[in-house]
Design brief:
- The protein is an alpha+beta fold.
- Strand 4 and strand 5 form a beta hairpin.
- Helices cover 20% and strands 38% of the residues.
- It has one domain.
């Protein structure tokens, strides 16, 4: 029986299964969407999601929005700021990232 609060042991080799980069065109010209995900067995161990556009953000290597768990913490990058985030599942985080990117694009479209 597992003790409460203890993570279950994840076994197996760390494997990068997702490594996608999309170069945006149209209204988001110059933007890049990146997703990298490492698994151990079926568990997501390490991830990075990023919307990069140096025309929109001049700091943090152009990262307008990003989520990752480097340095052992789940956190969010927004226009040069970094803040911790609650993590329940990778799938929910991807949904949140996509919704936030779409909102950024909607707001950017209103400015023009």
């Amino acid at each position: 029986m597992k003790k409460a609060g203890k993570a279950s042991r994840v076994t197996g080799k760390l494997e990068k299964r997702i490594d996608q980069t999309s170069y945006l065109t149209g209204k988001q010209l110059g933007g890049i969407l990146k997703e990298e995900v490492w698994y151990q067995g079926q568990a997501v161990i390490k991830y990075s999601l990023a919307y990069i556009n140096t025309r929109v953000c001049g700091v943090d290597n152009g990262r307008v929005l990003g989520y990752d768990n480097s340095h052992g913490e789940h956190h969010r990058h927004v226009m040069g700021r970094v803040e911790p985030v609650e993590f329940s599942s990778y799938e929910k985080l991807v949904d949140r990232f996509q919704a936030e990117v779409e909102e950024i694009w909607r707001q950017d479209g209103k400015k023009k």
